[in-house]
Design a protein that fits this description.
This protein has 600 residues and is α+β, with helices and mostly antiparallel strands. The chain has 4 domains: 201 residues, Neuraminidase, CATH 2.120.10.80; 72 residues, Alpha-Beta Plaits (2-Layer Sandwich); 91 residues, Met-10+ protein-like domains (GMP Synthetase, Chain A, domain 3, 2-Layer Sandwich); 174 residues, Vaccinia Virus protein VP39 (Rossmann fold, 3-Layer(aba) Sandwich), CATH 3.40.50. It is 19% helix and 34% strand. The protein has 11 helices and 40 strands. Helix 7 links the parallel strand 34 and strand 35. Helix 2 crosses helix 3 and helix 4 packs antiparallel against helix 5. It is globular and about 85 Å long. It starts with a strand and ends with a strand. About 2% of the residues have low confidence. It comes from Kalanchoe fedtschenkoi. Pathway: tRNA modification; wybutosine-tRNA(Phe) biosynthesis. GO terms for molecular function: tRNA 4-demethylwyosine alpha-amino-alpha-carboxypropyltransferase activity; tRNA methyltransferase activity. Its EC number is 2.5.1.114.
């Protein structure tokens, strides 16, 4: 299906819901996590025509807070949204209704039985009633059965007998006439496979066992060198089965990661296509390139239930505030998410900014670090507004900011308080690593700590790389990384402005990895190429609506620069790689510009 109207990336979601509207001719998608630009929880309403492919954003009034893991149920022309998760610690039990005729949301005040906050529950509609079973709230898995009467807006809890299905979340429930069917899901310590039926008129029920598990018995096998990269991709796209443990094969050279059935189907379909196109930002070709292999019929070992780190931190900080007789309102400022750089947990820049936190001194930071299991703790700062884009990360617990990161069998080390690390360029680094540069000289005009220099040397086997960089802190890290990866003898580091230091007439390939644009160094790149030409890898941030215009401008501009240098080259753009969304409607692109000497 070809999606028209809104960008298809709006549908890159998980934890969302979908209901049919307009006499089941269209699909109304609500909420979830992902979408365009920076992935986040959403409260958008998207209307998809599955036959024509039209995708539109529904303009609504009084939208509920963003969420995922909720349920959405159609009763007549009204969509009822129940519960969900607003952030890692804020689980909801609110009820909202959208009038799909007027497109106005309204929060409902419901009475009757208590309905505890939850997400990953299941809902089904019979008549004017919405039936809810199970769900999850931190480490509590529910086995309760509730009914919401949408006419009188009262909850009723149906008493459960001992032979009813146990506590579960992430299961499925559907209704047909007066029958409800519940299947699969996750229990407190295992995945489930019972098929359970319930008659809403007689309250009679039956159950049968169809399989040992409702989720997956499969693992994906990856070489140890690619394990970190592969795991990150699986986790990012929701394909990693977090209920089971990964394990190392006896040979010590391979790691097996538990995956969902959906991933197995997608990977099988991807491999059956036998794609030969260059590696792109699509994770499936990337995983194929890494040699991902499915192992079937291996249930593995299930994880024990654990407390969410955010909850542990909240409890630890709450205890500290209580001991110091400080206001509990400060707990609302705790971060809901953070990042990890090696063994450093990096808190968002906005964390703990209230001056009242200062009175706790180092005790606060040691408490937070211990609760998150961190040896070192830091707080992110704004990127310095200098040409060298220095990091302003602040170390809160620990002696220094040097970290080590392994990716694609390559070791990157850097001082996180002084250097930025680019996480979003993984697919492009893998693509460069897959090039055959055995007899090539490469010039990297923006080397940094070796983001692309190292893949060219370690994986693509470049004969020689000239690494241009003017940030002294990055140069220190780059030299360390060249030594750590045993490739220092094939790299010449050139300190200073590349427009002054870059070599001329030597390169088979030039990399220009600067955002938002590297245009000020395009002339330098052309001069660096050999007289018979070569390839330029040009990075830029480009509006999605202007991609074709940018490619044409790039081609013409490189052609003009080549002529001014006396080169009679044919200029072509062989490939444009869409690395990632940098911001809404702005893509990080890499264009492969081939410059070929004309014959005759």
């Amino acid at each position: 299906m070809t999606i028209d109207g809104e960008p298809v990336e709006r549908l890159f979601l998980w934890g969302h819901t979908a209901c049919t509207v307009d006499d089941q001719k269209k699909v109304l998608v609500y909420g979830g996590f992902g979408g365009m630009g920076r992935h986040a929880r959403r409260n958008d309403c998207l209307l998809l025509d599955p036959l024509g492919g039209a995708l539109d954003v529904v303009k609504v009034e009084n939208s509920p807070p963003p969420r995922l893991g909720h349920t959405a149920s159609m009763v007549g022309k009204h969509m009822f949204v129940i519960g969900g998760r607003a952030d890692p610690v804020n689980i909801l039990n609110d009820v909202w209704v959208l009038d799909t005729v007027t497109n106005i949301w309204k929060q409902l005040e419901c009475g009757g039985s208590a309905f505890a906050p939850r997400h990953r529950h299941a809902a089904a509609v019979v008549g004017s009633k919405i039936y809810i079973y199970g769900g999850l709230n931190n480490d509590t898995v529910f086995s309760s059965f509730h009914v919401l009467d949408t006419i009188n807006l009262k909850w009723i809890e149906i008493p459960c007998s001992t032979d009813w299905p146990g506590a579960r979340h992430s299961h499925a429930m559907v209704a047909t006439e007066s029958q409800l069917f519940i299947f699969g899901g996750c229990g407190t310590d295992k995945v489930l496979g019972e098929l359970f039926s319930f008659d809403v008129r007689t309250h009679s029920h039956e159950s049968s066992i169809e399989s040992e598990t409702g989720i997956s018995h499969s693992f994906v096998l990856l070489e140890r060198d690619f394990a970190k990269v592969g795991k990150d991709l699986l986790k990012k796209h929701g394909w990693l089965d977090l209920t089971r443990k990964a394990y190392s094969r006896e040979d010590g050279k391979h790691i097996c990661f538990p995956v969902t059935n959906k991933f197995c189907s997608l990977l099988h379909a991807e491999k059956s296509l036998e794609k030969t196109a260059p590696l792109s930002s699509d994770p499936l070709p990337t995983l194929c390139k890494l040699g991902a292999t499915i192992i079937m019929n291996d249930a593995g070992e299930f994880r024990k239930p654990s407390h969410p780190p955010a909850k542990i931190m909240r409890e630890a900080v709450a205890s500290l505030l209580k001991r110091q007789d400080m206001a509990e309102d400060l707990l609302e400022e705790l971060p809901a998410r953070w990042e990890r750089l090696g063994d450093i947990v990096v808190l968002p820049e906005s964390s703990f900014k209230n001056k009242m936190w200062d009175s706790l001194g180092n005790e606060l930071w040691s408490t937070v670090a211990k609760s998150l299991g961190a040896r070192r703790l830091a707080r992110q700062g704004r990127v310095a507004s200098t040409g060298t884009r220095d990091s302003t990360l602040e170390i809160l617990v620990g002696e220094n900011g040097w970290v080590e990161h392994r990716e694609n069998g390559i070791v990157y080390s850097f001082d996180a308080t002084k250097c930025m690390f680019s996480w979003g360029n993984l697919s492009e680094k893998l693509r460069m690593a897959g090039m055959n540069c055995r007899d090539e000289v490469v010039v990297d005009l923006f080397a940094g700590i070796g983001y692309f220099v190292l893949p060219f040397l370690v994986r693509a086997n470049a004969k020689l790389v000239y690494a241009c960089e003017w940030n002294l802190n990055a140069i220190e890290a780059l030299r360390r990384n060249l030594e750590a990866n045993s490739v220092a003898d094939r790299c010449i580091v050139l300190e200073g402005d590349n427009r002054l230091t870059a070599p001329k007439g030597v390169a088979n390939r030039v990399n220009l990895g600067l955002l938002p644009t590297s245009e000020l160094s395009w002339e330098t790149a052309v001069r660096a190429l050999r007289s018979d030409g070569g390839v330029l890898h040009v990075h830029a941030n480009v509006k999605d609506s202007e991609e074709n215009d940018w490619v044409m401008y790039l081609k013409e501009r490189i052609g003009d620069l080549a002529k001014s240098e006396g080169h009679g080259w044919d200029i072509s753009v062989d490939h444009v790689d869409r690395v990632k969304w940098y911001a809404p409607h702005i893509r990080h692109l890499v264009a492969d510009v081939r410059c070929t000497k004309k014959h005759g």
